[in-house]
UniProtKB/TrEMBL annotation:
The gene is folK. This is 2-amino-4-hydroxy-6-hydroxymethyldihydropteridine diphosphokinase. Pathway: Cofactor biosynthesis; tetrahydrofolate biosynthesis; 2-amino-4-hydroxy-6-hydroxymethyl-7,8-dihydropteridine diphosphate from 7,8-dihydroneopterin triphosphate: step 4/4. Keywords: ATP-binding, Folate biosynthesis, Kinase, Nucleotide-binding, Transferase. Signal peptide: none annotated. It holds the Pfam family HPPK. Residues 26-155 form the 7,8-dihydro-6-hydroxymethylpterin-pyrophosphokinase domain. Its EC number is 2.7.6.3.
Amino acid sequence: MTETPNPHIIDADTLTGEMRPIRRAVLSLGSNLGDRVTTLQGAVNAIADTPDVWVTSVSAVYETAPVNCPPGSDDFLNIVLLCDTTLAAHRLLERCLTVEDAFDRERGEANAPRTLDVDLIVVGDRRSDDENLRLPHPRAKERAFVLKPWYDLEPDAVLPDAGPVADLLADLGTDGVTLREDITLEIE
Ligand SMILES: Nc1ncnc2c1ncn2[C@@H]1O[C@H](COP(=O)(O)OP(=O)(O)OP(=O)(O)O)[C@@H](O)[C@H]1O
Ligand SMILES: Nc1nc2c(c(=O)[nH]1)N=C(CO)CN2
């Protein structure tokens, strides 16, 4: 059955400027090539410098074993950021891809070593099946390297369509996800 659009429901992404609601976004950042700490701190700064994006929390840093990566790939450092934003989800994605490029991200083989990867995990209650932007991120529920730092910041968080982050993490376990207490990233 074809659904008739409800004229009373406004898609927040169609609003402009000051009319946009503030939405909470969860971003996952990873690096397994080059100076990982400098890159992640630079990426946090760049995201925090973005107009209409406010980084509210930076997680602890985790050293994580590569998941589904080519043989011989090095460990990642992974973090999660919580942000408030009035940007439309696609604009936020564009900004994240620009930040990846600024840190010399090369796009080759799937899951190849990368200086920087920035994934949108959730953006408010926005859902998207567009191949250029899938929300909520379809693989987040399988990734302890996303869920553990997110859980630390928000123990009650829920990943839409998947369930409480705490439950997902309890099922997955945290093997291969090691806290790096010696590294602290800041919102500068
Ligand atoms: N939620 C999302 N966050 C970031 N990129 C996404 C998302 N959904 C779709 N994409 C698209 O995925 C494309 C490829 O991204 P990328 O090569 O960084 O994938 P990846 O991060 O290596 O793999 P994965 O998606 O499994 O984390 C991006 O150009 C982007 O348009
Ligand atoms: N440990 C770890 N493994 C990964 C990561 C990542 O950030 N950390 N990112 C991937 C694709 O985005 C694939 N595998």
